[in-house]
Amino acid sequence: MGRYLPLLLLICLWQVVCFLGIFPSYVLPSPIEIVKGFHALLTTGMPPGHLLYNHILYSLYRVGLGFAVACALGIPLGLLMGWFPQFYRLFSPIIELVRPIPPLAWIPIAIVWLGIGIRSAVFIIFLGAFFPVLLNTASGVLSINPILVDAAKTLNATQKDIFFKVLVPGSLPSIFVGMRVGMGVAWMTLVAAEFTGVKEGYGLGFMIMTARDIQRPDEILAGMFIIGMIGFTIDWLLRTWESSVRPWQ
Amino acid sequence: MHLEVVGIKKTFIAEKQGKETFAIAHIDLRVKEGEFVSILGPSGCGKSTLLRIISGLEKSFEGEVFLDGQKIRKHNHEVGLVFQQYALFPWRTMRENIEIGLEIMGMAKLDRRTIAEDYIRLFGMNGFEDQYPFQLSGGMQQRVAIARTLIMNPKVVLMDEPFGSLDSQTRNDMQEFLMDLWEKRHVTIIFVTHNVDEAVFLSDRIVVLSKRPARVLRIFECDSPRPRDRTSKVANDMRREIIGILRQERMEPSAVSNKTLTV
Questions:
Q1: Mean per-residue pLDDT, B139-167
Q2: CB-based contact, B15 to chain A, within 8 Å
Q3: B12 to chain A, closest Cα gap in Å
Q4: Measured between CB atoms, which of B76, B87, B132 is closest to A248?
Q5: Tens digits of residue pLDDT in A191-200
């Protein structure tokens, strides 16, 4: 409990600062106002009628889709790159060139190519998650002790056995690292990606941008807090999943 | 069963540095069914490389290896290999590690479980079946590795300094365990070690190798009955002689062919 004491003190201090009127509430709303803003997001919605849980569902849908595509492509490609040096040599120059471009820098071209809507939002999220997943998977394969491959060979393993019984489980720890980092980046790019993906009028990024348009800093901050909490929860879920699929250390 | 190693020569080529390392100069070896042969030599002399060649893992070398007159072209379960670092799969429980060879063969789950149970009992490892390797002691891990190899019924088992990373008490226990197993199962074993005591305690024959590039310096026959007394006069005399040969080998200046040649 004691660890949360500084946080609690900070919130109290914040409330006092607001109570004393040091900053006007349209710049810095007090914690109590933020809680009220949270309540308004739940009941009235932002814009009105667009309720919080719908924003959350849309955002989760976009992030889930982008992340799923990133894993579906990144994990197999990473396994191939880690296992076949020719594959690594083929792809690494391309990857080294594309990877340093921030996912958000793709937004304009994504709009040109895919239009405003879910496709470009998912594309941006995919780009954010793809490289961490790919590179961690590849380095996971490279980190497997070669004597494990030799051991499998002396037990009659074919290339297919080596792939499924050694490479995949052996790189699983790194794959999980890649997925957690990738999910973190995906969630970070979400808000910006939703600038382009708001045709439906839903999404947490869209929600806080709308709150800005109509001068509701309490709802902006409440929305930011929600985005953070969901990101934290997803990471916690991934960690829990990880420890249930790999009980070895 | 008999194993023949004929005219093995091996040079390592590190392409990047353009360097060649002459690892094995010339080795001939014949191993009979049920024999326990130790290969003893200074560290880095190419003992492990020789085992990799016999197992079929090493692709480029000169010479040939025959198992029952058939040339070994590719690694397979007829030649088992036990590694010093155990090489257990960390993501598999003990039982799953022991079963993996049968699993690769496509044996049904219940059948392989029954067979694995026999080995677990024979090896005195009951109660640890569902533990992961990191939860097992070094001695236990090596027993799992041996069981994983033996379950495939190999015609010959190669062991690459299998007890090298164990403390001396566990090492002695494992030597006795292996002797017992060898007598019960009549396995043929080629055992690489740099520990003279171990070789003298275990072997029917001891092949002493030179330093790199390796060739056979001497072959000792040890026919004293088992179980052996580690401190008997026969054992002491043999140890003294082998240690003397190895000491002299260390002192001698490197032969020309031992140098690293730049291409």
A1: 95
A2: no
A3: 18
A4: B132
A5: 888 876 577 8
In CATH terms, B2-78+155-262 corresponds, of 3.40.50.300, 1.10.10.10, 3.40.50.720, 3.30.70.1230, to 3.40.50.300
Q: Which CATH class is domain A30-245?
A: mainly alpha
CA distance B123 to B150: 11
Give me the residue spans of the domains in chain B: 2-78+155-262, 89-153
Of B56, B92, B104, the CB nearest to A155: B104
Q: Would you kindly state where each structural domain of chain A is located, as residue ranges?
A: 30-245
* Predicted confidence (pLDDT) at residue B262 exceeds the cutoff of 50: no
Does residue B261 carry a pLDDT above 60?
A: no
What is the mean predicted confidence (pLDDT) over B2-11? 93
Q: Which residues in chain A are contacts of B91 at CB distance < 8 A?
A: 169-170, 172, 246, 248
Residue of chain A minimizing CA distance to B87: A148
Whether residue B95 lies within 8 A of chain A, CB to CB, comes out as: no
CA distance B73 to chain A (A): 13
User: Is B59's Cβ below 8 Å from some Cβ in A?
Assistant: no
- What is the rounded average pLDDT for all residues in chain A? 92
- B259 pLDDT band, cuts 50/70/90, is very low
Q: What SS3 string covers chain B?
A: CEEEEEEEEEEEEECCCCEEEEEEEEEEEEEECCCEEEEECCCCCCHHHHHHHHHCCCCCCEEEEEECCEECCCCCCCEEEECCCCCCCCCCCHHHHHHHHHHHHCCCHHHHHHHHHHHHHHCCCCCCCCCCHHHCCHHHHHHHHHHHHHCCCCCEEEEECCCCCCCHHHHHHHHHHHHHHHHHHCCCEEEEECCHHHHHHHCCEEEEECCCCEEEEEEEECCCCCCCCCCCHHHHHHHHHHHHHHHHHHHCCCCHHHCCEEC
pLDDT value at position B82? Answer: 96
- In the DSSP assignment, the letter for residue A26 is T
Chain A residues whose CB is inside 8 A of the B57 CB are 150, 153-154
Nearest by CB: A248 against B55, B134, B148: B134
A-proximal residues of B, 115-174, CB under 8 Å = 132-134, 148-149, 152
> Which region among A20-29, B59-68, B100-109, B172-181 has the lowest average model confidence (pLDDT)?
A20-29
Quote the minimal CA–CA distance from A137 to chain B in Å. 17
Q: What pLDDT digit, counting tens, does each position of A159-172 carry?
A: 999 999 999 999 99
Q: Which residues of A touch B52 (CB under 8 A)?
A: 150
